[in-house]
Amino acid sequence: MTQPVLSLWINGKPQASMSARTADIFNPASGEVIRRAPLASRQDVEKAVAAARAAFPGWRETTPLRRARILMRFRELMQAHREDLIHLTTEEHGKTHEDAAGSLQRGIEVIEFAMGVPHLLKGEQAEDVGRGVDCHSLLQPVGVCAGITPFNFPVMVPLWMFPVAIACGNTFILKPSEKVPSASLRMAELLREAGLPDGVFNVIPGDKEAVDALLTHPDVRAISFVGSTPVAKYIYESGARHGKRVQALGGAKNHAVVMPDADLDFAADALMGAAYGSAGERCMAISTVVAVGAAGDALVEKLRDKASRLKIGAGDQQGIDMGPVITAAHRERIRKLIDSGVAEGARLVLDGRGLKVSGQEKGFYLGPTLFDKVTTTMEIYQEEIFGPVLIVLRADNIDDAIGLVNGNPYGNGTAIFTRSGAHARRFARDIEVGMVGINVPIPVPMAFFSFGGWKASLFGDLHVHGMEGVYFYTRSKVVTSRWPVDEEQGPSNLSMPTLG
Ligand code: NAD
Protein backbone atom coordinates (compact mmCIF):
# COMPACT_ATOMS: atom_id res chain seq x y z
CA MET A 1 0.00 0.00 0.00
CA THR A 2 1.30 3.48 -0.86
CA GLN A 3 1.28 5.69 2.18
CA PRO A 4 -0.21 9.22 2.09
CA VAL A 5 2.01 12.25 1.47
CA LEU A 6 1.95 15.06 4.05
CA SER A 7 1.30 18.67 3.06
CA LEU A 8 3.41 21.75 3.39
CA TRP A 9 2.10 24.52 5.67
CA ILE A 10 2.17 27.90 3.93
CA ASN A 11 0.23 31.07 4.70
CA GLY A 12 -1.83 29.53 7.50
CA LYS A 13 -3.02 26.41 5.71
CA PRO A 14 -1.92 23.02 4.38
CA GLN A 15 -0.79 23.16 0.76
CA ALA A 16 0.29 20.39 -1.58
CA SER A 17 3.92 20.48 -2.63
CA MET A 18 4.69 21.26 -6.27
CA SER A 19 7.43 18.64 -6.12
CA ALA A 20 6.83 15.01 -7.10
CA ARG A 21 9.68 13.88 -4.84
CA THR A 22 8.87 12.32 -1.46
CA ALA A 23 10.70 10.56 1.39
CA ASP A 24 9.39 7.58 3.33
CA ILE A 25 8.72 8.21 7.01
CA PHE A 26 9.32 5.10 9.11
CA ASN A 27 8.13 4.01 12.49
CA PRO A 28 11.60 2.85 13.65
CA ALA A 29 10.06 0.52 16.25
CA SER A 30 8.16 -1.53 13.66
CA GLY A 31 10.38 -0.79 10.66
CA GLU A 32 7.28 0.10 8.63
CA VAL A 33 6.68 3.09 6.38
CA ILE A 34 3.82 5.02 7.99
CA ARG A 35 3.53 8.07 5.72
CA ARG A 36 5.59 10.08 3.27
CA ALA A 37 7.10 13.54 3.47
CA PRO A 38 6.97 15.91 0.51
CA LEU A 39 10.45 17.08 -0.50
CA ALA A 40 9.78 20.76 -1.10
CA SER A 41 10.99 22.22 -4.36
CA ARG A 42 12.54 25.63 -5.04
CA GLN A 43 9.06 26.84 -6.14
CA ASP A 44 7.59 25.70 -2.82
CA VAL A 45 10.29 27.65 -1.01
CA GLU A 46 9.57 30.73 -3.15
CA LYS A 47 5.93 30.47 -2.12
CA ALA A 48 6.73 30.11 1.57
CA VAL A 49 9.17 33.04 1.50
CA ALA A 50 6.62 35.20 -0.34
CA ALA A 51 4.02 34.40 2.35
CA ALA A 52 6.49 35.13 5.17
CA ARG A 53 7.60 38.35 3.52
CA ALA A 54 4.03 39.55 3.00
CA ALA A 55 3.18 38.80 6.65
CA PHE A 56 6.23 40.60 8.04
CA PRO A 57 5.07 44.26 8.00
CA GLY A 58 1.82 43.49 9.85
CA TRP A 59 3.51 41.20 12.36
CA ARG A 60 6.24 43.73 13.02
CA GLU A 61 3.55 46.33 13.77
CA THR A 62 1.85 43.95 16.23
CA THR A 63 3.07 45.08 19.65
CA PRO A 64 5.38 42.76 21.58
CA LEU A 65 2.67 42.40 24.25
CA ARG A 66 0.13 41.16 21.69
CA ARG A 67 2.71 38.81 20.20
CA ALA A 68 3.38 37.49 23.70
CA ARG A 69 -0.34 36.87 24.28
CA ILE A 70 -0.50 34.69 21.15
CA LEU A 71 2.48 32.73 22.47
CA MET A 72 0.69 32.33 25.82
CA ARG A 73 -2.28 30.77 24.02
CA PHE A 74 0.10 28.61 21.97
CA ARG A 75 1.75 27.41 25.19
CA GLU A 76 -1.68 26.42 26.60
CA LEU A 77 -2.51 24.54 23.38
CA MET A 78 0.86 22.74 23.46
CA GLN A 79 0.02 21.59 27.00
CA ALA A 80 -3.51 20.57 26.01
CA HIS A 81 -2.23 18.54 23.05
CA ARG A 82 0.92 17.20 24.66
CA GLU A 83 -0.06 13.53 24.26
CA ASP A 84 -0.55 14.10 20.56
CA LEU A 85 2.92 15.63 20.20
CA ILE A 86 4.51 12.93 22.35
CA HIS A 87 2.82 10.27 20.22
CA LEU A 88 4.10 11.80 16.96
CA THR A 89 7.63 12.03 18.42
CA THR A 90 7.63 8.43 19.59
CA GLU A 91 6.04 7.19 16.39
CA GLU A 92 8.44 8.88 13.94
CA HIS A 93 11.61 9.08 16.04
CA GLY A 94 11.39 6.06 18.35
CA LYS A 95 11.99 7.82 21.70
CA THR A 96 10.25 6.38 24.73
CA HIS A 97 7.06 8.13 25.87
CA GLU A 98 8.78 9.53 28.98
CA ASP A 99 11.78 10.80 27.02
CA ALA A 100 9.52 12.42 24.39
CA ALA A 101 7.53 14.06 27.23
CA GLY A 102 10.76 15.43 28.74
CA SER A 103 11.95 16.92 25.46
CA LEU A 104 8.49 18.44 24.85
CA GLN A 105 8.67 20.07 28.29
CA ARG A 106 12.10 21.54 27.54
CA GLY A 107 10.69 22.97 24.30
CA ILE A 108 7.64 24.48 26.04
CA GLU A 109 10.06 26.25 28.38
CA VAL A 110 11.41 28.18 25.37
CA ILE A 111 7.86 29.38 24.61
CA GLU A 112 7.62 30.47 28.26
CA PHE A 113 10.90 32.38 27.89
CA ALA A 114 9.69 34.03 24.67
CA MET A 115 6.43 35.09 26.38
CA GLY A 116 8.56 37.64 28.27
CA VAL A 117 9.39 39.42 25.02
CA PRO A 118 8.14 42.92 26.00
CA HIS A 119 10.83 42.87 28.67
CA LEU A 120 13.44 41.08 26.55
CA LEU A 121 13.28 43.70 23.79
CA LYS A 122 14.06 46.61 26.09
CA GLY A 123 17.19 48.37 24.93
CA GLU A 124 19.60 50.59 26.81
CA GLN A 125 19.11 54.25 27.61
CA ALA A 126 21.47 56.98 28.75
CA GLU A 127 20.67 60.59 29.52
CA ASP A 128 23.11 63.44 28.83
CA VAL A 129 25.67 61.55 26.78
CA GLY A 130 26.53 65.13 25.71
CA ARG A 131 25.07 68.41 26.82
CA GLY A 132 21.35 68.16 26.03
CA VAL A 133 21.92 64.89 24.16
CA ASP A 134 20.34 61.52 25.06
CA CYS A 135 20.90 58.06 23.65
CA HIS A 136 18.80 54.91 23.50
CA SER A 137 19.06 51.59 21.70
CA LEU A 138 16.37 49.48 20.04
CA LEU A 139 16.20 45.80 19.14
CA GLN A 140 14.28 45.41 15.87
CA PRO A 141 13.31 42.25 13.97
CA VAL A 142 15.50 41.13 11.05
CA GLY A 143 12.66 40.00 8.72
CA VAL A 144 12.11 36.53 7.26
CA CYS A 145 14.05 33.89 9.26
CA ALA A 146 14.48 30.20 8.47
CA GLY A 147 15.17 27.20 10.71
CA ILE A 148 16.58 23.86 9.52
CA THR A 149 16.30 21.09 12.10
CA PRO A 150 17.59 17.52 12.66
CA PHE A 151 15.70 14.26 13.18
CA ASN A 152 16.63 13.69 16.78
CA PHE A 153 14.33 16.21 18.52
CA PRO A 154 11.19 16.59 16.38
CA VAL A 155 9.57 19.07 18.81
CA MET A 156 12.27 20.54 21.03
CA VAL A 157 14.82 21.75 18.47
CA PRO A 158 12.25 23.65 16.31
CA LEU A 159 11.06 25.20 19.59
CA TRP A 160 14.62 26.40 20.32
CA MET A 161 14.14 28.71 17.34
CA PHE A 162 10.72 29.87 16.23
CA PRO A 163 9.10 31.09 19.50
CA VAL A 164 11.98 33.52 20.04
CA ALA A 165 12.10 34.53 16.36
CA ILE A 166 8.39 35.32 16.07
CA ALA A 167 8.23 36.91 19.54
CA CYS A 168 10.88 39.36 18.30
CA GLY A 169 8.63 40.31 15.37
CA ASN A 170 10.10 38.14 12.60
CA THR A 171 8.28 35.72 10.32
CA PHE A 172 9.58 32.18 10.07
CA ILE A 173 10.00 29.23 7.69
CA LEU A 174 10.77 25.89 9.33
CA LYS A 175 12.43 23.15 7.28
CA PRO A 176 12.12 20.15 9.61
CA SER A 177 13.96 16.88 9.07
CA GLU A 178 12.22 14.88 6.34
CA LYS A 179 12.38 11.88 8.71
CA VAL A 180 10.18 13.48 11.43
CA PRO A 181 8.09 16.35 9.99
CA SER A 182 4.64 15.62 11.50
CA ALA A 183 5.16 17.33 14.87
CA SER A 184 6.23 20.56 13.14
CA LEU A 185 3.06 20.54 11.02
CA ARG A 186 1.01 19.92 14.17
CA MET A 187 2.63 22.91 15.89
CA ALA A 188 1.73 25.06 12.85
CA GLU A 189 -1.95 24.11 13.34
CA LEU A 190 -1.74 24.99 17.03
CA LEU A 191 -0.15 28.36 16.26
CA ARG A 192 -3.01 29.16 13.90
CA GLU A 193 -5.49 28.15 16.61
CA ALA A 194 -3.64 30.42 19.01
CA GLY A 195 -4.33 33.36 16.70
CA LEU A 196 -1.05 33.71 14.82
CA PRO A 197 -1.69 35.64 11.57
CA ASP A 198 -1.31 33.67 8.34
CA GLY A 199 2.19 33.61 6.86
CA VAL A 200 4.03 34.33 10.11
CA PHE A 201 4.95 30.64 10.53
CA ASN A 202 5.41 28.23 7.60
CA VAL A 203 6.63 24.63 7.44
CA ILE A 204 8.25 23.04 4.40
CA PRO A 205 9.44 19.45 4.86
CA GLY A 206 12.27 18.84 2.42
CA ASP A 207 15.91 18.03 1.82
CA LYS A 208 18.96 19.71 0.29
CA GLU A 209 16.92 21.26 -2.54
CA ALA A 210 14.74 23.21 -0.08
CA VAL A 211 17.74 24.09 2.10
CA ASP A 212 19.70 25.45 -0.85
CA ALA A 213 16.71 27.49 -1.98
CA LEU A 214 16.50 29.05 1.51
CA LEU A 215 20.26 29.66 1.67
CA THR A 216 20.29 31.57 -1.61
CA HIS A 217 16.95 33.41 -1.37
CA PRO A 218 17.57 37.17 -1.10
CA ASP A 219 14.52 37.71 1.16
CA VAL A 220 15.68 35.26 3.85
CA ARG A 221 17.66 37.32 6.36
CA ALA A 222 18.68 34.79 9.00
CA ILE A 223 19.24 31.04 9.13
CA SER A 224 19.29 28.87 12.26
CA PHE A 225 20.56 25.33 11.74
CA VAL A 226 20.95 22.31 14.01
CA GLY A 227 22.38 19.07 12.65
CA SER A 228 25.64 17.34 11.80
CA THR A 229 28.96 19.19 11.55
CA PRO A 230 29.63 18.84 7.78
CA VAL A 231 26.17 20.21 6.97
CA ALA A 232 26.47 22.93 9.67
CA LYS A 233 29.73 24.12 8.12
CA TYR A 234 28.18 24.14 4.65
CA ILE A 235 25.12 26.09 5.87
CA TYR A 236 27.31 28.63 7.66
CA GLU A 237 29.60 29.22 4.70
CA SER A 238 26.86 29.27 2.09
CA GLY A 239 24.47 31.42 4.17
CA ALA A 240 27.21 33.94 4.97
CA ARG A 241 28.22 34.08 1.30
CA HIS A 242 24.63 35.07 0.51
CA GLY A 243 24.63 37.85 3.08
CA LYS A 244 22.63 36.17 5.86
CA ARG A 245 23.31 35.95 9.56
CA VAL A 246 23.75 32.28 10.45
CA GLN A 247 23.90 30.21 13.61
CA ALA A 248 24.73 26.59 12.75
CA LEU A 249 24.93 24.08 15.58
CA GLY A 250 26.81 20.91 14.64
CA GLY A 251 27.66 17.46 15.93
CA ALA A 252 29.33 16.39 19.13
CA LYS A 253 31.54 13.92 20.96
CA ASN A 254 30.75 14.65 24.59
CA HIS A 255 33.16 13.42 27.26
CA ALA A 256 32.44 12.75 30.93
CA VAL A 257 35.51 12.79 33.15
CA VAL A 258 35.13 10.53 36.18
CA MET A 259 37.61 11.28 38.95
CA PRO A 260 38.68 8.59 41.44
CA ASP A 261 37.08 10.62 44.27
CA ALA A 262 33.61 10.53 42.58
CA ASP A 263 30.66 8.55 43.89
CA LEU A 264 30.99 5.82 41.25
CA ASP A 265 27.47 4.44 41.71
CA PHE A 266 25.99 7.90 41.21
CA ALA A 267 28.23 8.47 38.17
CA ALA A 268 27.37 5.10 36.61
CA ASP A 269 23.63 5.71 37.09
CA ALA A 270 23.89 9.18 35.56
CA LEU A 271 25.89 7.82 32.63
CA MET A 272 23.21 5.25 31.78
CA GLY A 273 20.70 7.96 30.86
CA ALA A 274 23.36 10.20 29.31
CA ALA A 275 24.80 7.49 27.06
CA TYR A 276 21.84 5.28 26.22
CA GLY A 277 18.82 7.62 26.63
CA SER A 278 17.16 8.23 23.25
CA ALA A 279 19.39 5.37 21.93
CA GLY A 280 22.37 7.73 22.14
CA GLU A 281 20.83 9.98 19.47
CA ARG A 282 21.23 13.22 21.40
CA CYS A 283 23.69 15.97 20.62
CA MET A 284 24.29 16.20 24.37
CA ALA A 285 24.63 12.43 24.87
CA ILE A 286 27.73 11.39 26.74
CA SER A 287 29.38 9.02 24.28
CA THR A 288 32.85 9.02 25.85
CA VAL A 289 33.98 8.44 29.43
CA VAL A 290 37.45 9.44 30.57
CA ALA A 291 38.09 7.36 33.68
CA VAL A 292 40.87 8.87 35.76
CA GLY A 293 43.32 6.71 37.73
CA ALA A 294 41.75 4.14 40.02
CA ALA A 295 38.19 4.98 38.88
CA GLY A 296 38.57 2.89 35.69
CA ASP A 297 38.09 -0.80 36.52
CA ALA A 298 35.35 -0.32 39.11
CA LEU A 299 33.45 2.13 36.89
CA VAL A 300 33.54 -0.12 33.82
CA GLU A 301 32.19 -3.01 35.89
CA LYS A 302 29.29 -0.89 37.17
CA LEU A 303 28.53 0.44 33.66
CA ARG A 304 28.48 -3.10 32.23
CA ASP A 305 26.19 -4.32 34.99
CA LYS A 306 23.69 -1.46 34.64
CA ALA A 307 23.72 -1.33 30.81
CA SER A 308 23.07 -5.06 30.51
CA ARG A 309 19.88 -4.61 32.55
CA LEU A 310 18.33 -1.91 30.29
CA LYS A 311 15.02 -2.87 28.66
CA ILE A 312 14.91 -2.28 24.91
CA GLY A 313 11.70 -2.10 22.88
CA ALA A 314 9.08 0.12 21.25
CA GLY A 315 8.94 3.54 22.88
CA ASP A 316 5.18 3.43 23.38
CA GLN A 317 5.38 0.29 25.56
CA GLN A 318 5.45 0.48 29.36
CA GLY A 319 8.75 -0.07 31.20
CA ILE A 320 11.03 0.44 28.19
CA ASP A 321 14.33 2.27 28.81
CA MET A 322 15.55 2.60 25.24
CA GLY A 323 13.93 2.50 21.80
CA PRO A 324 15.31 1.86 18.31
CA VAL A 325 17.65 4.03 16.24
CA ILE A 326 16.21 6.14 13.44
CA THR A 327 16.76 4.03 10.29
CA ALA A 328 18.09 0.65 9.16
CA ALA A 329 20.94 2.46 7.36
CA HIS A 330 21.95 4.28 10.56
CA ARG A 331 21.92 0.99 12.49
CA GLU A 332 24.19 -0.51 9.85
CA ARG A 333 26.61 2.39 10.14
CA ILE A 334 26.75 1.96 13.94
CA ARG A 335 27.28 -1.82 13.61
CA LYS A 336 30.21 -1.18 11.26
CA LEU A 337 31.73 1.26 13.74
CA ILE A 338 31.45 -1.38 16.47
CA ASP A 339 33.18 -3.85 14.12
CA SER A 340 35.97 -1.32 13.62
CA GLY A 341 36.40 -0.87 17.40
CA VAL A 342 36.89 -4.61 17.76
CA ALA A 343 39.28 -4.74 14.80
CA GLU A 344 41.34 -1.85 16.19
CA GLY A 345 41.81 -3.59 19.54
CA ALA A 346 39.35 -1.90 21.93
CA ARG A 347 37.90 -4.20 24.61
CA LEU A 348 34.23 -4.91 23.78
CA VAL A 349 32.63 -5.22 27.23
CA LEU A 350 29.00 -5.35 26.06
CA ASP A 351 27.92 -6.06 22.49
CA GLY A 352 24.52 -4.83 21.27
CA ARG A 353 24.88 -5.91 17.65
CA GLY A 354 22.82 -9.07 17.86
CA LEU A 355 19.81 -7.74 19.79
CA LYS A 356 16.35 -8.91 18.63
CA VAL A 357 13.14 -7.52 20.09
CA SER A 358 10.42 -10.12 20.08
CA GLY A 359 7.37 -9.11 18.04
CA GLN A 360 9.33 -6.20 16.50
CA GLU A 361 11.73 -8.15 14.29
CA LYS A 362 11.76 -5.48 11.59
CA GLY A 363 12.43 -2.60 14.03
CA PHE A 364 15.77 -0.76 13.93
CA TYR A 365 17.05 -1.97 17.28
CA LEU A 366 20.57 -2.14 18.60
CA GLY A 367 21.45 -3.10 22.16
CA PRO A 368 23.57 -1.00 24.51
CA THR A 369 27.24 -1.41 23.67
CA LEU A 370 30.24 -0.66 25.89
CA PHE A 371 33.92 -0.45 24.96
CA ASP A 372 36.86 -0.10 27.35
CA LYS A 373 40.54 0.69 26.70
CA VAL A 374 39.72 2.89 23.72
CA THR A 375 42.45 5.20 22.37
CA THR A 376 42.21 8.51 20.54
CA THR A 377 43.48 7.04 17.26
CA MET A 378 40.57 4.59 16.96
CA GLU A 379 37.66 5.28 14.61
CA ILE A 380 35.14 4.78 17.43
CA TYR A 381 36.78 7.73 19.21
CA GLN A 382 37.14 9.94 16.17
CA GLU A 383 33.62 9.52 14.73
CA GLU A 384 30.37 10.81 16.21
CA ILE A 385 28.61 7.41 16.46
CA PHE A 386 25.18 8.82 17.44
CA GLY A 387 23.93 5.50 18.75
CA PRO A 388 23.82 3.44 21.96
CA VAL A 389 27.59 2.97 22.16
CA LEU A 390 29.61 4.20 25.16
CA ILE A 391 33.40 4.15 24.99
CA VAL A 392 35.82 4.41 27.93
CA LEU A 393 39.31 5.89 27.72
CA ARG A 394 41.74 5.97 30.62
CA ALA A 395 43.74 8.98 31.90
CA ASP A 396 46.32 9.17 34.69
CA ASN A 397 45.25 12.48 36.20
CA ILE A 398 43.03 15.52 35.72
CA ASP A 399 45.61 17.30 33.57
CA ASP A 400 45.65 14.42 31.10
CA ALA A 401 41.86 14.23 31.15
CA ILE A 402 41.43 17.96 30.41
CA GLY A 403 44.09 17.73 27.68
CA LEU A 404 42.25 14.82 26.11
CA VAL A 405 38.86 16.59 26.08
CA ASN A 406 40.40 19.81 24.75
CA GLY A 407 42.21 17.88 22.02
CA ASN A 408 38.90 16.71 20.55
CA PRO A 409 37.64 18.81 17.63
CA TYR A 410 34.09 19.00 19.04
CA GLY A 411 33.09 21.15 22.03
CA ASN A 412 29.36 20.78 22.64
CA GLY A 413 28.87 19.40 26.17
CA THR A 414 30.98 17.78 28.86
CA ALA A 415 30.73 16.74 32.50
CA ILE A 416 32.96 15.96 35.45
CA PHE A 417 32.05 13.63 38.28
CA THR A 418 34.00 14.47 41.43
CA ARG A 419 33.64 15.29 45.12
CA SER A 420 36.45 17.84 44.90
CA GLY A 421 35.52 21.51 44.52
CA ALA A 422 39.05 22.26 43.36
CA HIS A 423 38.85 19.71 40.53
CA ALA A 424 35.38 20.90 39.54
CA ARG A 425 36.44 24.55 39.44
CA ARG A 426 39.59 23.80 37.48
CA PHE A 427 37.60 21.72 34.97
CA ALA A 428 34.85 24.32 34.46
CA ARG A 429 37.46 27.04 33.95
CA ASP A 430 39.88 25.28 31.60
CA ILE A 431 37.68 23.03 29.51
CA GLU A 432 37.11 24.25 25.91
CA VAL A 433 33.47 23.24 25.66
CA GLY A 434 30.31 25.37 25.56
CA MET A 435 28.16 23.53 28.12
CA VAL A 436 29.66 22.04 31.27
CA GLY A 437 28.12 19.81 33.93
CA ILE A 438 29.50 19.27 37.42
CA ASN A 439 27.99 16.00 38.61
CA VAL A 440 25.30 16.76 35.97
CA PRO A 441 25.65 14.43 32.99
CA ILE A 442 23.62 16.28 30.34
CA PRO A 443 24.06 19.99 31.10
CA VAL A 444 21.43 21.31 28.68
CA PRO A 445 20.93 24.96 29.73
CA MET A 446 17.42 26.03 30.67
CA ALA A 447 15.52 28.20 28.16
CA PHE A 448 16.50 31.45 29.91
CA PHE A 449 20.18 30.65 29.36
CA SER A 450 21.58 30.07 25.87
CA PHE A 451 22.40 26.67 24.33
CA GLY A 452 25.43 26.16 22.13
CA GLY A 453 28.79 24.50 21.79
CA TRP A 454 32.29 25.58 20.80
CA LYS A 455 34.70 24.54 18.04
CA ALA A 456 33.26 22.09 15.46
CA SER A 457 29.94 22.04 17.38
CA LEU A 458 28.97 25.60 16.41
CA PHE A 459 29.55 27.77 13.38
CA GLY A 460 28.53 31.36 14.06
CA ASP A 461 28.73 33.62 17.07
CA LEU A 462 25.43 33.35 18.89
CA HIS A 463 23.84 30.39 20.65
CA VAL A 464 20.12 29.54 20.56
CA HIS A 465 17.41 30.77 22.98
CA GLY A 466 18.11 32.86 26.08
CA MET A 467 19.38 36.38 25.39
CA GLU A 468 21.73 35.19 22.64
CA GLY A 469 18.62 33.95 20.78
CA VAL A 470 17.04 37.40 21.16
CA TYR A 471 20.20 39.06 19.83
CA PHE A 472 20.34 36.64 16.90
CA TYR A 473 16.77 37.44 15.85
CA THR A 474 17.10 41.23 16.22
CA ARG A 475 19.20 44.06 14.84
CA SER A 476 20.24 46.74 17.26
CA LYS A 477 19.91 50.39 16.46
CA VAL A 478 21.25 53.27 18.54
CA VAL A 479 19.38 56.60 18.48
CA THR A 480 21.18 59.77 19.58
CA SER A 481 18.83 62.74 20.04
CA ARG A 482 19.00 66.43 20.83
CA TRP A 483 16.13 68.93 21.09
CA PRO A 484 17.93 72.28 20.87
CA VAL A 485 16.32 75.46 22.03
CA ASP A 486 16.95 78.49 19.77
CA GLU A 487 19.66 80.17 21.83
CA GLU A 488 21.73 76.95 21.89
CA GLN A 489 22.18 76.83 18.12
CA GLY A 490 25.75 77.91 17.29
CA PRO A 491 27.57 78.34 13.95
CA SER A 492 28.03 75.17 11.84
CA ASN A 493 31.12 73.13 12.65
CA LEU A 494 32.69 70.67 10.21
CA SER A 495 34.93 68.79 12.63
CA MET A 496 34.12 65.31 14.02
CA PRO A 497 31.38 65.85 16.61
CA THR A 498 32.33 65.14 20.23
CA LEU A 499 29.43 65.17 22.59
CA GLY A 500 30.94 65.05 26.05
P1 NAD B 1 21.80 16.18 9.31
O1 NAD B 1 22.93 17.15 9.31
O2 NAD B 1 21.88 15.01 8.42
O3 NAD B 1 20.42 16.93 8.93
C1 NAD B 1 20.03 18.12 9.57
C2 NAD B 1 19.14 18.92 8.63
O4 NAD B 1 19.90 19.28 7.46
C3 NAD B 1 17.93 18.16 8.13
O5 NAD B 1 16.84 19.04 8.08
C4 NAD B 1 18.32 17.68 6.73
O6 NAD B 1 17.23 17.58 5.86
C5 NAD B 1 19.27 18.78 6.28
N1 NAD B 1 20.35 18.27 5.41
C6 NAD B 1 20.93 17.04 5.46
N2 NAD B 1 21.91 16.96 4.53
C7 NAD B 1 21.96 18.16 3.90
C8 NAD B 1 22.78 18.69 2.87
N3 NAD B 1 23.75 17.97 2.30
N4 NAD B 1 22.56 19.96 2.48
C9 NAD B 1 21.60 20.71 3.05
N5 NAD B 1 20.80 20.26 4.04
C10 NAD B 1 20.97 19.00 4.48
O7 NAD B 1 21.58 15.75 10.84
P2 NAD B 1 20.59 14.65 11.41
O8 NAD B 1 21.10 13.30 11.05
O9 NAD B 1 19.18 14.99 11.10
O10 NAD B 1 20.78 14.89 12.99
C11 NAD B 1 21.82 14.34 13.74
C12 NAD B 1 22.98 15.30 13.87
O11 NAD B 1 22.53 16.52 14.45
C13 NAD B 1 24.07 14.80 14.82
O12 NAD B 1 25.32 15.12 14.27
C14 NAD B 1 23.83 15.59 16.10
O13 NAD B 1 24.96 15.77 16.94
C15 NAD B 1 23.38 16.90 15.53
N6 NAD B 1 22.64 17.68 16.51
C16 NAD B 1 23.27 18.74 17.07
C17 NAD B 1 22.62 19.49 18.03
C18 NAD B 1 23.30 20.65 18.68
O14 NAD B 1 22.65 21.34 19.44
N7 NAD B 1 24.57 20.91 18.44
C19 NAD B 1 21.32 19.15 18.42
C20 NAD B 1 20.69 18.06 17.81
C21 NAD B 1 21.37 17.32 16.85
TrEMBL record:
Name any one GO molecular function: methylmalonate-semialdehyde dehydrogenase (acylating, NAD) activity
Instruction: Answer whether the UniProt record assigns the keyword NAD to this protein.
Output: yes
* Cited Gene3D superfamilies: Aldehyde Dehydrogenase, Chain A, domain 1 (3.40.605.10), Aldehyde Dehydrogenase, Chain A, domain 2 (3.40.309.10)
GO terms under biological process: L-valine catabolic process; thymine catabolic process
Q: What is its EC number?
A: 1.2.1.27
Q: Which keywords appear in this protein's UniProt record, sorted alphabetically?
A: NAD, Oxidoreductase
Q: Which stretches make up the Aldehyde dehydrogenase domain?
A: 21-479
* PANTHER family given in the database record: MALONATE-SEMIALDEHYDE DEHYDROGENASE
Q: What is this protein called?
A: methylmalonate-semialdehyde dehydrogenase (CoA acylating)
Which organism was this protein described from?
Answer: Candidatus Muproteobacteria bacterium RIFCSPLOWO2_01_FULL_60_18
